[in-house]
Amino acid sequence: MARITLKDVSEAAGVGTATVERVLNGRGGVRPTTAEKVLLAAKRLGYRRALPDTHRGILRIEVILVRPETSFYSRLNHAFERIAALLDKSITVHRTFARENDPVEFAHYIAHPKAHRSALIVVAPDHPDVVQSVRAAADLGIPVVQIMTRPAPELPYVGIDNYAAGRTAGLFMAHMLSGKAGSFVALCHSGAYENHRERVRGFSDYLAAHEDRRQSFTEVMFDFDDEMKTMELLSGALARDPEIIGVYSAGGDNRAVASVLRQPGRRPVVWVGHELTEQTRSALADGTMSIVIDQAPEVQARRSIDLTLSQLGLIEVETAAEPVRFLTVTAENL
């Protein structure tokens, strides 16, 4: 292979050789965006020379997450942290938590980052302002990857097939309660996320396609992953309808659901939910919960970083296009 020269890098970056020399030797006096172009060009060409510490973290991948208090996003955040520690020192993965209940502020943050970003990985609520800002970021020419939920279907997405996850929940529910009369209810965060809507749609569609006239899917409750609201809604539903035999929690409200279903004298139901956490492990182990559908956040983090680095031209790894495989966990395979 021919040796890569400063001229090769300058032509690839669209800048002069003097600028390339300043960047690669850490002499300063070059705008960060220009330095980023030079470093990307050098890496894409396979320029082997060690780069100066002055460019540590200049290639900035921003990850915008929500709800740091939840087990799932805590797992996802820690996965990104572990991956970041193994990357080239010129690459930094900056993790930010945004307020999902303020879509205008969320959109403003995407549109006006506090620092230059080379790429964006985002959990985006399905709100017009947020979706527009995500598309605008992609229009700037940087890699944009949606993770967990896909409100802009034309942009790259890393996550499970949420519709299939919902249908899987329906399949297990129908088979475990085959021949038993009663009703099913579902809980999810809200209609703000495409992934939750798809899970509930898949659950409903499966039950409709495998109709048992003795059973019915009667209610979807929005709890915003608020424990008190979840307990209030589910307790109210169980009190109103003594025929409830199945509960599907499509969001992250598992602690509250377990608390309600463990109440003394509560009639048993089949409960299918998402995310393997300490709470769901305990609920599976004691029989309160029947099945957990886990969407492997560690795999999602790794794949989204690989896809981003590939789009930046920094690695030549073919990233799987199909959805991340979700896992089904019972008390027998904890």
UniProtKB/TrEMBL annotation:
Keyword line: DNA-binding, Transcription, Transcription regulation
Q: What domain of life? A: Bacteria
Which InterPro entries does UniProt cross-reference here? Answer: HTH_LacI, Lambda_DNA-bd_dom_sf, Peripla_BP_I, SBP_2_dom
Gene Ontology molecular function: any one: transcription cis-regulatory region binding
HTH lacI-type domain mapped to chain residues: 4-61
The record's annotation in SMART domains points to: HTH_LACI (SM00354)
The residue stretches assigned to a coiled coil in this entry are none
Pfam families to which the protein is assigned, alphabetical: LacI, Peripla_BP_4
- In Swiss-Prot or TrEMBL terms, this protein is called LacI family DNA-binding transcriptional regulator
